[in-house]
C-alpha cells in the first residue's frame, strides 16, 4: 500500500509566457503539433479555442452570430416562472457566453456587440428589479463594462456604440 505524504508532493511550477514562447520556437514542428493535440484533449475549453483559431479565426461575424444564438437559447429558459436562483444562474450563463467569445476573438468590438445584445435581450424580459436587485445589478454591471470598453476604442467607432448604450440606459429594466 502506497501512502501519499504531503511533504513528498511538490507542485509543478508554471513557467512565464516569455519562457514558453522561447521554448515553442525551439521545438520541432511535429512536437508542436503533438503538444497542441494533447492540450486539445486536456479540456473542452482548449479544444474549442484551438478549433476557433484553426477554422474560424478572423471570422468575427460567425462568432458573434453563434454567441447571439447561444444567448437567445439561454434567455429562452430564463424567467421568474422558475425560481429566482435559476433566473440568476441563467443570466450569469449568458455572461459567460460573452466572456468566452471575448477571449476567443481578442477584438473589443465583438465583446461590446455581445454585451449590447445581451442587455437588449435582458431589457425585453421585463424582470422585476425592485423585487430582486441582484438582477438589476447584473444589467448595470454589463452596461458599465460596455462603456469602459467603448471608451478605449477610436472616436469614430465610439459613436454608434454610445448611442446603443444610451438607449439601454433609458430603458427601465422591470
Radius of gyration: 21 Å
Task: Kindly estimate the percentage of residues that lie in beta strands according to DSSP.
Answer: under 5%
How many structural domains can be distinguished in the coordinates?
A: 2
Largest sheet: none
End-to-end span in angstroms? Answer: 62 Å
| Number of DSSP-assigned strands | 0
What's the helix count?
Answer: 8
Instruction: Work out the helicity level.
Output: over 70%
Shape: globular
What is the N-to-C succession of helices and strands? HHHHHHHH
| Overall pLDDT score | 84
Low-confidence stretches: none
Structural class computed from helices and strand pairing: mainly alpha
Short description:
This protein is mainly alpha-helical.
Folded structure, characterized:
It is a single chain. This protein is an all-alpha fold and 174 residues long. The protein folds into two domains: 17-57, no CATH class; 58-174. Helix content is 74%, strand content 0%. The chain is built from eight helices and no strands. The mean pLDDT is 84.
Amino acid at each position: 500500500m502506497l501512502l501519499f505524504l504531503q511533504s513528498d508532493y511538490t507542485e509543478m511550477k508554471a513557467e512565464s509566457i516569455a519562457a514558453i514562447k522561447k521554448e515553442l520556437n525551439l521545438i520541432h514542428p511535429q512536437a508542436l503539433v503533438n503538444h497542441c493535440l494533447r492540450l486539445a484533449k486536456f479540456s473542452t475549453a482548449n479544444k474549442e479555442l484551438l478549433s476557433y483559431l484553426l477554422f474560424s479565426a478572423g471570422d468575427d461575424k460567425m462568432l458573434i452570430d453563434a454567441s447571439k444564438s447561444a444567448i437567445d437559447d439561454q434567455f429562452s429558459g430564463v424567467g421568474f416562472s422558475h425560481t429566482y436562483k435559476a433566473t440568476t444562474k441563467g443570466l450569469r450563463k449568458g455572461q459567460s457566453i460573452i466572456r468566452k467569445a471575448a477571449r476567443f476573438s481578442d477584438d473589443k468590438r465583438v465583446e461590446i456587440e455581445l454585451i449590447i445584445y445581451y442587455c437588449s435581450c435582458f431589457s425585453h424580459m421585463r424582470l422585476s428589479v425592485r423585487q430582486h436587485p441582484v438582477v438589476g445589478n447584473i444589467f448595470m454591471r454589463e452596461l458599465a463594462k460596455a462603456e469602459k470598453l467603448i471608451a478605449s476604442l477610436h472616436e469614430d467607432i465610439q459613436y454608434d456604440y454610445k448611442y446603443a448604450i444610451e438607449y439601454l440606459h433609458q430603458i427601465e429594466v422591470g
